[in-house]
TrEMBL record, chains A, B, C, D:
It comes from Acrocarpospora pleiomorpha. This is Cyclase. InterPro entries: KFase/CYL (IPR007325), KFase_sf (IPR037175). One of its GO terms (molecular function) is arylformamidase activity. GO terms for biological process: L-tryptophan catabolic process to kynurenine.
Length: 275, 275, 275, 275
């Protein structure tokens, strides 16, 4: 049995934590890729529909959604290249009875890891649609912030594009015509070389999308998910974290154990102790 | 900026954590209440269905489910009594445009709290179907384990019924004919008096269900969700935690921010530091 | 028992029928209103996923959709005005346990009725976006075609807008910016005075939509569904019928008996005998 | 243009029709196979949720369901044997982008055909669970009723099991433990030899199911769907037709044009003219 007061984690919790929510709210009509089933939530039963004799009543929901909508994590099952998944498994044979038992999102361990926010706009480099964030950008952020990226870290790359999430024009954030900023192949190799555990961004596809190009080519997905086995987290809310200048933190994320799924909606958190 | 090494939380993380997964896996055909839309996950696209010119291919999922299936948390919007939600809001008027903006699951803050497992079978008290776990049982567990329950804690009550989750007879765990063990009204008041923040159990409805009674009366839901404003977590996996004898831990849970929803599937964790 | 050869319907069938399909195909990505859950169809199981010992294998689908997507019929439950449904029922009280038992689509009898196509563009009147088809237009079509509209008929009004259904720009058919042609309040009263049973059109909302106005005002829905109790059929495929010049026919339609629903996807047919 | 009064079909319609509904209502909780996604219908929007300035309000639905639930038709894409679909196509290669473009339910033409009800219990042969309806039974019904079955007909086989559809025990109709009556391999060959276009029954799987055997072997599906290319219609409502003794009629059925789907919910009708 754990003795109260000895557990350093519980002691840290008691010392006070500040929790930053890195998830976007999920609501009908939110910006999302048309490649995935849209988020819908309805109430099959509302209060008053059926009241028990003792005065009790329950309301409940039905959810319909893709696993790559809202803030979500990509499992290794999500992307293949030349017919192979990460580790060399045949992508078609890896699917058994309608799921990916060996590469699904249920295989991702809950994360309690050092997190680093690399805040590119803070460097004075605005990231317009289609801008490719380079290794030089990443390294400048690292050094300016004094937050070197190391093995096992979770790295969150802020382009500032997240400011469009709430735009009344729901297509603005998707950026089909404008493109979307993000890292490209070079940035992906940089992350892979650092040995990060997972990487996230404030955009819908994590990596740079060229204007008018859509998802026709996703080299960073290939490098990270297929070659390096690094998980991707998309559509993150990074504005608050950037506004308060928190660049290093404990990153906490626990995907839903959707057996065999290619991804999961998640609620990632950045947590700071000693508050 | 947070300086590396100063943050006691990050220091605890670096010191090593043991993470116990308290969520059941989500899979088609899993035991769940027929009152809620069943869990379904399918792959609209599999690898090989559409391969881009560069050799890349993506697979993705569609999810359909209720928010009270699998391991999940009940928001205050879930239950009303005599037409009122917790805090006295009119339950029908609280629904706006198909959701509960003030009482929905999106209003539940992520939890990093002291967690206590009250392991009833360990006391030599097996909990058969329909058994009501009493305040005396709860207090005996508290004292035997040296884990007093206090304000703000998250209390998990293990009846041992979770062993039926994997029964090939998917109705066994639901226990319609046998009843299901759990606390009743008295146990609910005991938790409310202790001022706990949330309470969970290894059963489908958290509280005791009488044999053949189904969900016809749910007094603990009324006391906890409506009267006391205490969240409930159902269908938890508590067997591993019990097997290793961990009774006190940091409880971590972050519901999906499903705007206006009455509940959310979750992946709760029990975490122990200094491992 | 019916004696073969005596039944005039069966005799007509044996004499040969020409069947015109008035339904649009249902496919993922088809044009539809964002007000309704999008059509999705996936295969939870494909051939080869699970092969029985005897060599047999089954594939199956999951559907997710609104009931007002694709070619569909509006039940009287769909629209209310000043809180009342057709016949004066209170629209909120008419909903019981999440459905409309008295006004739902299950109350619509299958139709075998005289159908009339009023082909407006054939009159030399192209119908651009936002064009209001007037009673004068309807009467000119009636007389030119020698197809007077009478009580109990089903009237299909072709604006020609259906040609945009297959436009690669999926928003073209919706016509948000351009508006969509159709009848307005005056045309609706004209149909109601003729005593038609149901009315359909080749557009997404049956009636005229003003440029940039969306569904902010739907007077023909009010007149027909609420005041007159006339069913509406939307997103019909009328191009083939117009091309071959068939203006009078047997109209056949059988909604799915979705208990309590506000509408149903349908496959309406125009059938001509003696072919 | 068709001249009014000449069309024999329209003349038959005007002469009066009696329409028998052969579809079961679709409602949440109805009996259905657990192999398929369950039917759910909810109202994302109810009257009063959002009222426009002019007093108008719309309610709408979300549907979730398999295509083999409720009264439905099986397309040729549904079943394969030894890796082949009807006509010899490779069942795995026949699936393209998540659907069956060549064998899907959208390829089934709307049916206006002679229909024959073969009413087995009327012969004094009750059909208990697991009873196999033999070719001799079918021929006795044919001759007793004076309704010979011929090429292109649609044959509906009534076992009487449909009386269990409304049983409060929703598993009764499924008949897992009791078995379900129906034709077997011999009956299937009999239908194939007669050259029927489609065949239906009042049970969930069309063919006989042995007690406790479930769907482990479905020889009639193989013979009809794979070998003979004959469509199957399941979970039909045949009680009313039998009660009034109508054994020959015009059978009308139009599947939803669900592109690439393995089946479709349908509302089949038996229609008699000259009423």
């Amino acid at each position: 049995m754990t003795i109260t007061g000895i557990d350093p984690l519980l002691a840290a919790v008691r010392g006070g934590l500040t929790v930053y929510d890195l998830a976007r709210p999920l609501f009908v009509g939110m910006p999302q890729s048309p490649n995935h089933p849209a988020y819908w939530r309805t109430l099959p039963r509302r209060h008053g529909d059926r009241v028990r004799g003792d005065g009790g009543s329950a309301a409940n929901d039905m959810l319909v959604m893709g696993t790559h909508v809202g803030t979500h994590i990509d499992a290794l099952a999500h992307v293949s290249h030349d017919g192979l998944l990460h580790g060399g498994a045949d992508a078609q044979l890896a699917c058994r009875e309608g799921g990916y038992p060996d590469h699904g999102v249920h295989t991702i361990e809950p994360m309690f890891r050092r997190g680093v926010l690399l805040d590119i706009p803070r460097l004075g480099r605005p990231c317009p649609g289609g801008y490719e964030i380079t290794p030089a950008d990443l390294e400048l952020a690292e050094s300016t912030q004094s937050t070197p990226v190391g093995p096992g870290d979770v790295v969150l790359i802020r382009s500032g594009w997240g400011r469009h999430f709430d735009d009344p024009d729901r297509t603005r954030y998707l950026g089909h015509d404008t493109g979307v900023p993000g890292i490209g192949e070079a940035g992906a190799y940089w992350l892979a070389e650092r040995g990060v555990h997972a990487a996230g961004a404030d955009t819908i596809a994590f990596e740079r999308l060229g204007p008018g190009r859509g998802h026709s080519s996703l080299p960073a997905h290939r490098v990270l998910l297929v070659e390096a086995g690094i998980y991707l987290i998309e559509t993150m809310a990074l504005e608050e974290l950037a506004a308060v200048g928190v660049h290093e933190f404990t990153f906490v994320l626990a995907p839903l154990p959707l057996h065999g799924a290619t991804g999961s909606p998640v609620r990632p958190l950045a947590v700071v102790g000693g508050a």
